[in-house]
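Late entry, written up from scratch paper. The run itself happened at the end of the previous shift, but nothing got recorded in the book at the time, so transcribing now.
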Amino acid sequence: MTPAKNSPIPGAERPRRRRILSLVSKREAARVSRLLRAEVVGGVIVMIAALLGFLAANSPIADSYFALRDTKIGPASLGLNINVGHWASDGLLAIFFFMVGLELKREFVSGALSKFSTAIVPVAAAFGGVAVPALLYVSFTAGTPAAHGWAIPTATDIAFAVAVLGLIAPRIPPALRMFLLTLAVVDDLIAITIIAVFYTENIQLLPLVLSVIPLALYWFISRKYAARLARSTWGPWLILLPLGMVAWALFHASGIHATIAGVVLAFLVPVSGRDGTQLAETFEHRFRPLSTGIAVPVFAFFAAGVAVGGASRFPLDPIALGIMVGLVIGKPVGISLITWLLTRFTRAELDPAVRWRELIGVAALAGVGFTVSLLVTELSFSDAGDADTARLAVMVGSVIAVAVSAALLVRKARPRAVAAQETE
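Output as recorded:
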């Protein structure tokens, strides 16, 4: 007797499906939890700083605020006589990019990005969340000089997004928190690459070649003496920090945006092995307060200082429409669509604890593109009206993205009897 046509063949096994959006390990989950707590605190501080900057720019002290932002300081002989606003974006923000680079390397070495099965979804989703907003922005600005700002709506502000997620959905599955974190980290890597490739002009080769010297010393010392530096109180400050500052100055002189130096320095820090892990944790412990408590808030304070009714043409200018549509619609569509395609046409499947409504809500939250979006705005436009229009669009678009995310993630408490029936 032959088996029925559709009956399973004895001994045959169905293709195993890979579960995505799952935590890698308990150790990884604990590290991610610590990082998320730090980002929540940092996000709240940045929100307050940005609000203060916006209020200062639209208050009786506006003239003093703008005068402070435009005050030039630094040695002119080294080409570093730049205003306070540029010091915040080029100098202080390099600390933020150092922390981003350090987290990127840890993710690639031992985190969610170290295995193809766990990396494919956030990496692919991040690319979708970059491509769709960029295309939407270009659709509004095609054929005009404003198209140069195509990368503005592509970035995700990890501190803002994580802080908001903690406020509006504190009980969301840990797998989705890690998805947002990993997505934002990959998003930052893409943004860093975009800045280095598309927003760098007139590269000076001599300073760039000379930067190899402090970078090589930095790499050698951090590798050779990782254990000593991890235990030392002043070693990282007195030895590695001066080398990092020299490398930063040479990057600045070369024409490459100086924040890229922070990423390069982070990639040179060992993160694996006992000594490397200790040194990476030491750097995270000592430098993160500088990033979350000083560098990013100061940048936000000056970057968010836009006078309403000034040179801005917000909200109907194509620049504003392109940015807001890119952040509010492009981000969730790009991320959710790529994730759905992966689960539809590959052997990947969502973790059972994750619902599509929640995933789309997290994808909408990726539209909070504050810090890096404002940085790209500065690099995109020299015209004050274009820059102010873009800044307001980034801030308003981010707020709308939060509202959309909250509508999807915030749910009213259900009666226990109903919840019990649904789980049966």
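The chain has a mean pLDDT of 83.
(Scratch paper discarded after transcription.)
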